[in-house]
Design goal:
This protein is an alpha/beta fold and about 350 residues long. It has twelve helices and eleven strands.
Length: about 350
């Protein structure tokens, strides 16, 4: 199939962010045999005005996307958030190509109002929506004709190329990379875990990155590839509990695919219920700081167990949550095709 993929390539950052989810989805489309035109709406907008700003180039960006679709005549329009693209432009593309199928996917948390508003602005103009949150809260994201489905964060063997689960000589015991938002709950593990490690395990070799010492590009890849354990804790607002009806359910940033996909033993918060997707013997799920400290102690003192559980996770995500399967699932669901794989993640379609 011919696909126009509207997604941010992060060209602006000159290689600093070349491991994000849209890159993996694009690779999946191509490796599944599709003819893909990658349209980076942000770069097109910047290049379309003399000052090089997105705001001044937005109108031209939308006009040029319509021109691309007129010239290329895609069978699929895949929108990765695509906050630069107007709903009216999507409708114009559909009028010109009445048989086109249009999908929207978004990787951001649904407990952030701006993310929800961005999805709502397009939900009545697409055929299907895919989100990295699961459960009944997806009903609130459905459009008049668009159902909503969960997708896992995919791994990609060309991006996630380290095999930390096979190595005993890794110099870093624990790695964490993530900023702390002002609205985070006071008992959030993302905020508490680094301090707990420093207090209880001062001899561990740790790398913590966040608000004051951000890490990107090759340095980020190197940090991942030298680390035994990765902390995948998402910022959680106060008062939000987990469970199938919660905006926390099955949610994770794409950090989890980078960690598990490179063979790191990955810690997550029990509030996100990620063991339902990955299995209890493939990740380490903790409920609170006390349990976190206990599991850190166990796995830093039992390296064979660290390697075993990390390998379980690595094998699972590369087999069942890779870029080809996630990309093909999106196409099959949106187009109504028969499934070509027995997908391991929840496949329920939620409708308004």
């Amino acid at each position: 199939m011919r696909i126009v993929h509207v997604a941010n390539t992060n060209y602006k950052y000159l290689g600093l962010r070349n491991y994000g989810l849209p890159i993996k989805i694009n690779n999946g489309f191509i490796r599944n045999g599709h003819d893909v035109y990658w349209y980076n709406e942000r770069d097109v907008a910047r290049a379309s005005n003399i000052l090089g700003t997105r705001k001044l180039g937005k109108k031209a960006c939308n006009r040029k996307l319509l021109q691309v679709c007129q010239n290329f005549e895609p069978e699929v329009l895949a929108l990765a958030g695509a906050d630069m693209i107007h709903a009216e432009t999507i409708d114009s593309i559909r009028r010109h190509l009445p048989h086109i199928i249009i999908l929207l996917y978004d990787i951001d948390a649904l407990y952030i109002d701006s993310n929800v508003a961005a999805i709502h602005s397009k939900r009545d103009h697409v055929d299907h929506i895919f989100l990295t949150t699961g459960g009944a809260c997806l009903t609130n994201m459905a459009g008049k004709n668009a159902g909503v489905s969960f997708i896992p964060n995919p791994v990609d063997p060309s991006v996630d190329a380290c095999k930390n689960h096979l190595r005993r000589d890794l110099p870093t015991d624990i790695m964490f990379a993530g900023a702390i938002n002002k609205w985070v709950a006071p008992d959030d593990l993302r905020m508490l875990a680094p301090g707990a490690i420093r207090n209880h395990f001062p001899n561990l070799n740790c790398e913590f990155y966040g608000n004051d010492n951000k890490i990107w590009g090759a340095e980020f890849r190197k940090a991942i590839c030298r680390s035994k354990i990765g902390l995948n804790f998402s910022c959680t607002p106060e008062g939000l509990s987990g469970g199938p009806g919660s905006e926390l359910y099955l949610y994770s940033s794409d950090r989890i695919s980078l960690y598990m996909g490179n063979g790191m033993l990955t810690f997550t918060s029990a509030a996100n219920n990620l063991s339902e997707l990955y299995g209890h013997d493939r990740i380490v799920e903790v409920k609170n700081v006390d349990e976190f400290i206990d599991r850190v102690r166990f796995f830093t003192e039992n390296d064979e167990e660290r390697m075993r559980v990390a390998q379980n996770g690595y094998d699972f995500v590369h087999s069942e949550c890779n870029e080809r399967l996630v990309a093909q699932y999106m196409i099959e669901v949106t187009s109504g095709q028969d499934w070509t794989h027995d997908y391991v993640w929840p496949t329920e379609v939620f409708r308004a």
